[in-house]
Amino acid sequence: MNMSKKLLSVTVVICLALFVFACGEGEKIAELEKKIEQLSAEKADLEKTAAEAVDKPTAAQTYKIGFSGALTGTTSDVGVPYSKAIEDYCRYVNDEKMLGDDKLECMIRDDGYETEKTKRNFEDYMDEGIVFYLNYSTGSSMAMGKDFDEEKIPTITASYHAGNLDVSNYAFLPIVSYTSQALALADYLVANHKGDTPKVAMFIHPSAFGRAPVEDLKKAIAGGLKMDLVEVVEHGKDLDNTAMLQRWMNKKVQYVICQTVQPPVATMLKSAQGLGVIAGSYGEEGKLTFLGLHYAGGPDLVALAGSAVEGFFWTTSYRLMTEKGPGGDAQLALAKRYGRDDATANSQNYTNGVQVIQIAVETIIRAKAKGKKITRQALYEEMLAMNGYNAYNSLTTVGPVSYSKTDRQGVDMLQLYRAQGDVFRPVGAPFAFTPAK
Amino acid sequence: MSQNRWLATGNFFTSYKQEQRIFLTHLDRLVFICFLVVLFVWPLFLEVGNKYMLVIDNILIAIVAILGLNLLTGFAGLISIGHAAFVGVGAYTVASFARVLGDSHVLITHAWPLMILMAGGVGAVVGAIVGLPAMRLKHLYLVIATLSFQMIFQWTINFMSFFNQGQTISIGRVFWFTGKVVRNQHYFFWYYVILVILIILGLAVRNLLRTRYGRCLVAVRDNDRAADAMGMHPGLTKVYAFAMSGFFAGVAGALHAYLFRGAGFESFTLHQSISYLAMAIVGGLGTLVGSFFGPMAIIMLDLQVENLSEFFKHQFSAALDLATALRPLTFGLVIVLFLMFEPRGIANWWRILRTYLKLWPFRY
Q1: Best B54, B168, B170, B322 residue to mutate vs chain A (most A CBs within 10 Å)
Q2: Which of B50, B191, B267 to mutate: most A Cβ within 10 Å?
């Protein structure tokens, strides 16, 4: 009995407690429901804000671009103005707020034209988190192609070696390749030559850069191009080329195609001037007509060779500072704004540098305009989409910059120039060169 | 011999064997083991970027090469200015296989220890062949002979289409037990590989110097006629020294090719040979520790001068090509200063420091 009473009283107490608790819980549940409603509203607000933040980033970003080039040593005469252009345009982009509140950071390092150092610089840049890479030498571009692919980083090289495009899907040339330039010159040479099959010599840099177009030119000759390639000379550090020029004269060479940088060409031209073998007019009998690819000529050659440059034929895709036009004016203004001397401001290597950094910046601008997050992949996609109506006119080149999955050579147009009175003047109109298959 | 094997303050040897021990005291052994542990463990705790890992790997490879050069120039007294070409032979051995079989052939990617060994073997054979004139030539004449080898090597690589005319011949990524060594593991992986090889080769050199072959090298260096009179064969000893040097260089070359994932001509030029010689001189010719200090000092100096050059380049106009001149100027200056004021190299500073610590706190 006692036991039953105890059980009953315990049961009653528990029931009462449950009742009291349940009443309290009911109030709490109502409170909780209210809170859930509040939190849901807050969550919706937050989601809306987050979505807006994605569309329109409020925090300023810094995008990093790396350039590794020869600021000292071999070919630094090209690398220095090239790097200064990158530096100047980068400052210009930030000063003019071309990326809005976002900033562009251009890291520039010297590699002394050595692949090992270039690789070290590249690794450094990757550690720094760059989104776009600008490379310089042919050797390093070819050696590091797989790295570009593995890192999936869009890369513009200062080397126009067509082989760059074979080793990496992420490598882009700013203008047509050396091969196309050489073949275009050879086509011009043959088309304007009067008389028998012209005898031609090549004067090239002792590196992959210099050798780039040689094999393709030989193939073109084997394929029917009517010219006789008599000799291919890889120059050293000669201060005089008299012996070489005399040899060519003995072999009845009439044309010399140069694929190197300006200083050795200037040395050769001065030797030729000393010998009196520079042709007064195109293809003059018994004399030598000199022609050069992009890095072999231009205003820098005029400064080095002086009057010996007269009559030198040169092809490139870049506009020259000696021509009036919006591109040249803008370049001069840029160089002046950042205190560069006249030699740098007028250098075609400065123009090159401006163009490559312009392309990189343009991809960022386009990716931002589409609301994309700025990543290497996004910029790569923008590079590939830069064609047709989306081609980019940098004003520094004779044609628009266009890239696609099947064409990673930027400007497809070339302009032939001829040195006249210490200035390179255009010969004819820009032309699109498509190498014969 | 000292009763205290931990802290001997002087030389108390009672036999030649005691003097030839690798570690003179237990403390030496303990310090060495601790140092090795630190070398193996630090990458697990310190986060280092790829750039610096690449520099460190490069230093280790240079040490392997300098171990070989020091055997030749330091211990055998045969000056070589073609050492980069020997290193190149090793690199191009691997590259040749890659060229013929493809850069991702199983021999290249899976059997890489074998390839490294093979590169060392080819380096040794080429070293022995190049060393043959050493049987007749001495001093400057031998220097010219090694220089000619350097030139022949450069010409061959630069002009033969098989070697891609000096352009980089690429080498595929290697495999380890855990699978393919991908890009973000690359430099760490090779750090450990090079470190293990370096320890093995370092101990091998240390042991070699305790053997009759090692003593032969030193004897021939000091006076080859006296060595001949003592029953040694100076000519063969010199060829042997070249072969050993070639082996070390070949191994270094193969490691270089794997680290940079390719072999290119410009890493094996005469300039690099002179750099190697400078490393051996600055480190201390004829000393084992000198082979470690030299590459470290020269490569670090090179890095700092590069930074300084860049600074100058940005400060001064392009016409004043001070930056271009700064590097060779500093490099030459360092060698001249070392030759004038410390011909025994950094190894001598190390010896002074060790002696000081051995006697500490007493000055004498």
Answers
A1: B168
A2: B50
Distance CA A17, CA A11 (A): 10
Q: Could you report how far apart the first and last alpha carbons of chain A are, in Å?
A: 112
From the list A419, A430, A360, A348, the residue with the least C-alpha distance to A394 is A360
Which residue intervals of B70-178 are DSSP H helices? 83-101, 106-109, 112-131, 139-159
Closest chain A residue to the Cα of B173, Cα to Cα: A146
Alpha helices in A56-160 (DSSP H): 76-95, 115-128, 138-143, 145-151
Question: Quick check: B184 contacting A, CB < 8 Å?
Answer: no
Q: How far apart are CA B331 and CA A81, in angstroms?
A: 27
Structural domains in chain B (count): 1
- Ramachandran category for residue A395: left, alpha or beta (phi over 0 → left; psi -120 to 50 → alpha): left
Cβ distance A208 to B167 less than 8 Å, yes or no, reads yes
Instruction: Print the domain residue range for B212.
Output: 23-359
pLDDT digits (tens, 9 = 90+) for A126-162: 999 999 999 998 889 999 999 999 999 999 999 998 8
Q: Is A116 in contact with B165 (Cβ distance < 8 A)?
A: no
Chain B residues in contact with A114 (beta carbon < 8 A): 266
8 Å CB contact of A110 and B323? yes
Instruction: Give the side-chain half-sphere CA count within 13 A for A358.
Output: 23
Q: Hey, is the C-beta of B348 within 8 angstroms of any chain A C-beta?
A: no
Selection from B250, B223, B224 nearest residue B236 by Cα: B224
pLDDT in tens, B47-96: 888 989 999 999 999 999 999 999 999 999 999 999 999 999 999 999 99
Q: Which two tokens stand for residue B240?
A: 């042997």
Which residues of chain A are within 8 Å of residue B190 when distances are taken between CB atoms? none
Q: Nearest chain A Cα to B310, which residue?
A: A110
The amino acid at residue B298 is I
Distance from CA of B136 to the nearest CA of A (A): 34
Whether the CB-CB separation of A172 and A408 falls below 8 Å is answered with yes
Report pLDDT digits (tens) over A171-195: 999 999 999 899 999 998 998 898 8
Could you tell me if residue B339 is inside a domain? yes
User: Within a domain: residue B3?
Assistant: no
Region of residue A388 (phi > 0: left; psi between -120 and 50: alpha; otherwise: beta): left
Say how far apart CA A187 and CA A226 lie, in whole Å: 9
CATH of the domain at B301: 1.10.3470
Q: Which of the residues A109, A115, A167, A211 would you substitute to probe the B interface, choosing the one with the greatest number of B C-beta atoms within 10 Å?
A: A115
| B166 within some domain | yes
* B193 domain residue, yes or no: yes
- Beta strands of A183-243 (E only): which ranges? 199-204, 228-234
**Closest approach of chain B CAs to the CA of A409, in angstroms?**
22
| Residue B314, min C-alpha distance to chain A (Å) | 9
Separation of alpha carbons A241 and A235, rounded Å: 9
Touching check for A71 and chain B: CB below 8 Å? yes
Residue B202: CA count within 13 A, CB half-sphere: 20
Asked if B89 and B245 touch (Cβ cutoff 8 Å), the reply is no
Cα distances from B291 to residues A68, B59, B198, B209, B313, in angstroms, run 31, 11, 11, 14, 33
- A123 CA to chain B: closest CA distance, Å? 5
Predicted local distance difference test score (pLDDT) of residue A291: 94
Cβ–Cβ contact B335 with A under 8 A: no
CB of A290 within 8 A of CB of A313? yes
Residues 6 or more apart whose Cβ sits within 8 Å of residue A244: A233, A238, A268, A271
Among the listed ranges A36-40, A206-210, B150-154, B175-179, which one has the minimum average pLDDT value? A36-40
Closest Cα of chain B to A17: distance in Å?
59
